[in-house]
Design brief:
Blueprint lengths: L3 H17 L15 H17 L4 E7 L3 H7 L5 E6 L2
Antiparallel strand pairs: 1-2
Helix pairs in contact: 1-2
């Protein structure tokens, strides 16, 4: 199970990357392999930051809905993310 500290580090790195419009190193070193809950926790932290900064959530994106694509990529469920007005 990924630690809360590592979830926060991954969120911080991705947040700074988006803010600065600059690439960042992969965050996989902070998250345990296959820890989907940790990945969504990172997303939730940065979603809250965006909302707190005044960005407007307008929807959600669902990916990997095709069973064939899931099988090809070795996953067993769709993934999702947030869509903001900007």
């Amino acid at each position: 199970m990924t630690s809360d500290a590592n979830i926060a580090k991954a969120a911080d790195l991705l947040f700074a990357s988006a803010r600065d419009r600059a690439p960042c190193a992969p965050v996989r070193e902070f998250l345990d392999a296959g820890d989907v809950a940790a990945a969504y926790a990172v997303q939730e932290i940065n979603t809250r930051r965006a909302l707190d900064a005044g960005r407007r959530l307008v929807g959600r994106k669902i990916g990997l809905t095709s069973l064939a694509v899931q099988k090809q990529l070795g996953v067993d469920q769709p993934d999702y993310g947030m869509l903001f007005a900007d």
